[in-house]
User: Which sequence fits this backbone?
């Protein structure tokens, strides 16, 4: 069991939202131990804790909300925070969507590392899987199995001739996340462009912040960062969504053709399966925290 962590100093960044296309400035601030991850909409004076109970939408991204105020596309920054083991942080923004930057978590990692990481004088509880939890959602499946560590296995399958099936399995460490997962960019299909924009999505999407697949190939001149960049990005999204449990999960998580909606449903199933996990902590009654 490690010590809790926050960032050493305030740091900021800005950019456009993937779906809104609106320019937003974000400030990351240190937070006391036991704070968790807090989002603050400064333009609305609204605070939202990063928890599965705050999820209000999972269409093409994960959005949190309260009293009609939303924060869209939180998964990439949650993945970066989780991947670096940051437990307590305040994420302030002056708009409705976290900037997409280059479509991955690499720039976010650099920003957090620039702020520095500070250990806090209290142990970090974690969730340990002790019995299998299996969740099926149509053609999608997610399962959690006991494992001495944090392992993720992810499989995707798309009908596009350049994509098809990809599978990745790795033990999640800070080093592996930074090297193997964080650089993978969000992706989409050119054929879906008009539909998405007509329905209020992908207004800020471009070849600068997404991998775009056309009928004849990858449209980005720079090509792919990994041969299997697509499954790596799906794993990134899932790591971000899983942060909404409120604790690191120690076990082997296996996902098949899952997306944000299935991810959130799985988290709710996992939390309700109380005989399948235990919270490891030096503080009694910490289990009650996951429902607050």
Assistant:
């Amino acid at each position: 069991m490690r010590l809790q962590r926050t960032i050493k100093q305030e740091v900021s960044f800005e950019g456009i939202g993937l779906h809104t296309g609106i320019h937003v400035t974000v400030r990351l601030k240190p937070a006391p131990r036991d704070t968790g991850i807090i989002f603050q909409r400064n333009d609305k004076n609204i605070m939202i804790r990063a928890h599965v109970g705050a999820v209000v939408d999972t269409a093409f991204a994960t959005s949190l909300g309260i009293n009609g105020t939303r924060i869209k596309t939180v998964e990439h920054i949650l993945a970066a925070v989780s991947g670096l083991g940051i437990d307590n942080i305040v994420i302030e923004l002056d708009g409705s969507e976290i900037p997409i930057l280059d479509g991955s978590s690499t720039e976010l990692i650099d920003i957090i590392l620039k702020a520095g990481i500070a250990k806090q004088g209290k142990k970090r509880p974690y969730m340990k899987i002790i019995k299998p939890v299996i969740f099926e959602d149509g053609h999608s499946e997610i399962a959690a199995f006991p494992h001495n560590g944090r392992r993720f296995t992810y499989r995707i399958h798309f009908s596009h001739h350049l994509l098809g099936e990809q599978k990745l399995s790795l033990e999640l460490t800070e080093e592996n996340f930074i090297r193997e997962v964080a650089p993978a960019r969000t992706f989409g299909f050119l054929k879906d462009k008009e539909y998405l924009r007509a329905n209020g999505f992908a207004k800020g999407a471009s070849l600068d912040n997404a991998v775009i697949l056309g009928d004849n190939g990858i449209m980005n001149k720079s090509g792919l960062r990994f041969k299997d960049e697509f499954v790596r990005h799906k794993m990134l999204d899932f790591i971000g969504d899983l942060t909404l449990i409120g604790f690191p999960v120690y076990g082997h998580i296996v996902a098949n053709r899952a997306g944000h909606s299935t991810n959130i449903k799985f988290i709710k199933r996992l939390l309700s399966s109380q005989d399948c996990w235990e919270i490891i902590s030096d503080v009694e009654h910490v289990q009650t925290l996951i429902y607050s």
The chain has a mean pLDDT of 95.
